[in-house]
# Entry
Amino acid sequence: MSHELTLLPGDGIGPEVTEATVQVIEAAGVDIVWDRHRVIGATAVERGRPALPPDVVESIQERGTALKGPVTTPVGKGFTSVNVQLRQRLDLYANVRPATSLEGLDTPFDDVDLIIFRENTEGLYSGIEYFDDRLDIADSIARVTRRGSERIIRFCFEYAREHGRDHVTLAHKANILKKTSGLFLDIGNDVAADYPEIEYDDRIIDNLCMQLVTNPERYDCIVSTNLFGDILSDLTAGLVGGLGVTPGANIGDELAVFEAVHGSAPDIAGQNVANPTAMIRTAVMMLQHIGEPDAAAAIEGALFEMYREGDVLTRDVGGNASTSEFADALADRVAHHVEA
Ligand code: NAI
Ligand code: MG
# Structure
């Protein structure tokens, strides 16, 4: 079966890690016709186009699924994050970010297996910001809605039920943010009652961070509002080997955009040293989503072998292979898995 999908290589390390990923998907024998869009973010703005060009949005709306590399966002000024715009425009309300220990990687814990479910369209990312330059006062509005909260919390419980996971933790700061976090927590308590077979609890975000860096194996599914979910997912990436190995997905009711947790990593861009594992595991999630479970399993199996053996790994995880050396070795192995 042939698939038509959108490919957004992004910028920084994006083109390097997406190219590696496409190579590995091809080795698995999946037939994909990619609609590639390289002009996005700063590249688009330089050409006098909107940071998120309409043809990118249309391509994903038509094809339903995209694989996306990171796109740089200017800090403190400039255009609104393309990543955030895309999630909001396409209503990709669930940001799913698994953090699972990789056998063979030397990390402080070896039995982490949790997933962050981050609300992806509102909260402190709603874009409602004011600056009063007379008084030098800045305000950001965290908009939390019943509809937005209920759908991400339900998504998390449904995912848990479907995947045989038995514990959901809701992360909040309802002691201080009594309205916004308070609403999110109230809705969580209500929704949890519909899933009696799933253990449910809540944690105040700061305490949860401390718990996660001391006893991460106690956690399973964690659901939270946008900013808390963003921060938590970098934290949990750090528990299992870092941003180079942790995948992610933005899922809505109709559309899905698959992208890793990491950003464009300008510090290592263009050097052929980035770890494509996060992007490749992101592609594994995508292949499961588009109904290619065998290819997903072949890639994941080969990847796990590479980490167990530890001979060809990138430098962020203690090896000295380049991005392309890692991709070549993995693609070879995937091709053997598929033939076998
Ligand atoms: P970052 O995730 O790009 O980098 C943080 C650190 O992790 C850097 O030291 C980097 O070298 C390392 N790293 C990240 N991915 C790696 C990989 N695959 N292999 C090896 N090392 C890796 O975060 P940072 O520096 O905060 O953000 C850089 C830019 O990326 C910013 O403009 C930010 O807005 C953007 N960004 C974009 C995202 C997206 O497109 N979804 C997500 C996060 C950030
Ligand atoms: Mg982030």
Notes: The first helix runs from residue 14 to 27.
